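Incident log, structure service

09:12 report received: a user says their structure output differs between two submissions of the same chain.
09:20 pulled the input from the user's history:
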Amino acid sequence: MAEKVESPQKCCGGIDMESVSSLAGLFFWQVSDLGLFTKVLPGVAKVLGYTPEELIGKKQFADLQDVKFRDCLGEVEDFFLQAERFSQLVLMYRHRDGAPVWLSLSGEPIYHAGLFQGFQGVAINVTSQVETQDSLTERATMFRTMFDSESEAIILVRAQRVVDCNPAAAELFGYADASELCTKSIEDLSPAMQPNGQRSLDLAGIRLKTVLQKGTHRFEWQHRKQDGTLFPAEVTLSTIPYLGGTALQGIIRDISKRKRIEDIQQKSLWWKQGLNDLHDRLYPLATLSEQLFEITRSAVDIFELELCQVWLTAPGDRCLYCPHRLRENCTGKVDCLHLVSEHSQLMCPLIWPRYPLGHGQIGELAPTGDNKKMLLHDIDSELFDIDFGWFLQRKVQDFSGCRMRRINGESIGIIGFYSGHTISFEEENVLENMAGAAGYAIQSFQDSESLRQAKESAEQASLIKSEFLANMSHEIRTPMNGIMGMTDLLLGAGLGEDAEQKLAMVRSSAVRLLAIINDILDFSKIEAGKLELESICFKMQDTVDELLNLFTGMAREKGVTLSCSVGTDVPAVLIGDPNRLFQIISNLVSNSLKFTHEGLVSVRVSAVELRDDSEVVIRFEVADTGIGIPPEKQDVVFSSFSQADSSHTRRFGGTGLGLSIAESLVRLMGGEIGLESDVDSGTLFWFTCVMGIGTDSCIVLADDVGASQTFTEMLGRTVRVLVAEDELINQTLIDLVLKQEGVAVTLVSNGFEAVESFQKEPFDLILMDIQMPELNGYGAVQKIRELEAGKGKIPIIALTAHAMKGDRERCLAAGMDEYVTKPIVRDVLLSKMAKLLK
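09:34 re-ran on a clean worker, output below:
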């Protein structure tokens, strides 16, 4: 029976209830024997949102109770009926705004004159504690779901035993389910010894100590599955609270694959370093025997082999006898497991007539008969006159017989590698590389003198070829300059329609001849690796417009529609070699027009890939509705000197160099080229190239020498030009071209005359031929520059038929300011003159 309290004042024991009830989350209350509030201190406002006056007369355990929890009132009513003290009774109320409030109630009965008057007590807001407990329960369910669904293997260990795990852990260790794994100790999951030689139990104690000190620890560990299989793992061990105590959580990752990759990588580095060292050691050796000894010694050390032997063979060595079951697969050479030769030479005291080739596991080593037999799969062959106890003792398992070859593929020997471990695929590849390197070293030793002589002969032949091409270029371009220049002048002289048609044919033939010459020179440069690309800013639209201007007339004559389009995704300004790009496209367009008799030829330009905002991959397509290319001919159209129709009756001309040069130029531009074609349906040629992305500010506009103004009118003054040229036709041509532009021309025939004229008369500019009698252009420029010392510098343009790689650089280095090749293009010459004179 609870103690009878006579009055509320006594119950409170003199405590200042007003002060205490002002604390947040706490208020004092009194109710009558009917459960109606008779007194509530102000702290209630902070808890339930009501003032004390608003609660007086309300039934505490009904009016404010949440309707869902009123079934709990029976317990409260028992306290009332029995007038017994109660404490920490948690009930849910509703705040004035409707929000749930959990209160922990403690109360005691009030007596007056021995009669029960009601209860008084305290209410404490425990809403946050109740919600926290609910949240913890919900989170526990969520974490269990996450734990079970985690793909990483997780185990919980307590007192050296697995007390919990997820399904991934059971699968990793090979158990049927988690419950089966949870019966095991950590000793069951590890071998007795770890790879470093320490006992697992001893090392586990060290790991546990580290975890207890740091809270978490990551390390590598060798685990054991249920079937006894060992596997390397990465373990992350940490301490976590568990059932009122502490447990160890282990996250286990199988790193077998990673270990294999690391082992291969480490061995690859070792092998590579060993082969590099071998390469350096072989070349200084004085004799072939020393080289072979170094090869075998290094192979044993680098690859941890039991035996390595080298045989030198004659070029005619071949398989004389094939022990294969599938004899129809024997080629007589590489495919056979053995090579039999009458020219055997082994660099050791013994000589063997049969050499192993290929790769194979040694299935059985057994002394049979004379102890000379060795079983390789199904092959029983006498390989070595050696005691097989040596092989058995070293447990030789595998062999790899690799040919040593010359660069031309000719066999010069065989290396036999014999291993006590299974030779991996990676090792086979490296062994073959070693055999190749050894073969190359031996060849270099045997053929060093002949290689040196061949190199000198090749260099001499290349020099002669380069000189011949340079001379051929000069000798052909010089008369071509006269033919094309004079033809251009006559075409504008008003000779009549018939004459102009014939002259146009002459010029067309000259252009074709010049194109052939350029193709031959380009092919020679590409073949010698001396063709270089420019890197300048240009506008793709300008290149396309130039293409249209060049081929529109030809297309119109054939009745073929020519169209060109540049995609909006193509940058307006690009950085690259516009001349070589134009050469590729014009070659493809010319080719399409040649084989298209009706329909259309279309050129499409688009961007296919943007790289780092500084580079772009451009795709070009030239499609036609022509005769198409047969499938069997498509593979050769890009080959040098090849054409789809090579018969004597073919209808279309050409050297067969154009597409080959185009392909080489595309490769130099970092792209690819290809085609799609159907006979009688047309052909689509495409290629890509990598270009830089430029801006308008990097474009250097060409000087505009307009047709409506002469050269001197454009400059606004008279221009005096000295022309040094020994060829009469070229003198006449240049003189006519310049005089039509109002230029005052002085002609001289050699370098001495040029220097003399320069000293006598003032000139604004000099056009200097390079190859002249008595004193060439280089010598004349040198003397002129010497005479200018301390004075003004006159502009000099090299006017030459030398168009090989390096000629332009040589002219500029000699002191010239510009470079123009023959045949002379009028607009190009005048543009460069205007640039220097401005």
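09:41 both user submissions now match this output. Likely a transient worker issue. Closing.
09:42 reviewer note: The mean pLDDT is 76. The first helix runs from residue 8 to 12.
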